Amino acid sequence: MATVKELIRSEADGSISFGDYELAVKTKLKDFNHQGDLYKVKTFKEITKLERNDLFVYESVPGTAVEHFQVTAEQVEFQVEGPEDAQITLGMEDDTEYLTIVDGVDAGAIRTNLGGKLVLSVELGGKEKVNVKVVKA
């Protein structure tokens, strides 16, 4: 199981990795500096949440481990793993349509609400890692 034992870390490719779904109690780390932004992560077996500069970025129920999380103006891409299927919420642009690709399979288009939240489900049970890519349509 590839949880992120330091809760959040910078990767050589410029991405970040975060989350530890094996923790029994909620653990937090704030003010993690990555490329000029301050990140805060809260994680344990029931939930993993990430904020950047006090703004919502990622949440999963139950908790997950996320690797190589990268955000650009056009897309979000990452690898996720966990002990069971998860509902993932991403903070994106308001009222915008995105194409979702899960493990190389087109999972369809999703439109964000006025708060910019995009919700998708990922089947994780028994899989090593699942690749997720969300691209602005």
Largest sheet properties: 7 strands, antiparallel
CATH topology name: Chondroitinase Ac, Chain A, domain 3
CATH architecture tag: Sandwich
- Helix percent reads under 10%
Rg over CA atoms:
14 Å
Strand content: over 45%
Overall geometric form: globular
Topology:
Elements: E1 8-10, E2 16-18, E3 27-34, E4 37-44, E5 47-52, E6 55-61, E7 65-71, E8 75-81, E9 86-91, E10 97-102, E11 105-111, E12 117-122, E13 130-136
Antiparallel strand pairs: 1-2, 2-7, 3-4, 4-5, 5-6, 6-9, 7-8, 8-13, 9-12, 10-11, 10-13
Structure notes:
It is a single chain. The protein is an all-beta fold. The protein has no helices and 13 strands. The strands form two sheets. A seven-stranded antiparallel beta sheet has the order 1-2-7-8-13-10-11, with no helix packed on it. A six-stranded antiparallel beta sheet has the order 3-4-5-6-9-12, with no helix packed on it. The protein is globular and about 35 Å long.
Summary keywords:
137 residues; mainly beta; Chondroitinase Ac, Chain A, domain 3; seven-stranded antiparallel beta sheet; six-stranded antiparallel beta sheet; 13 strands; 0% helix
Give a brief rundown of this model.
The chain is mainly beta and 137 residues long. The protein contains no helices and 13 strands.
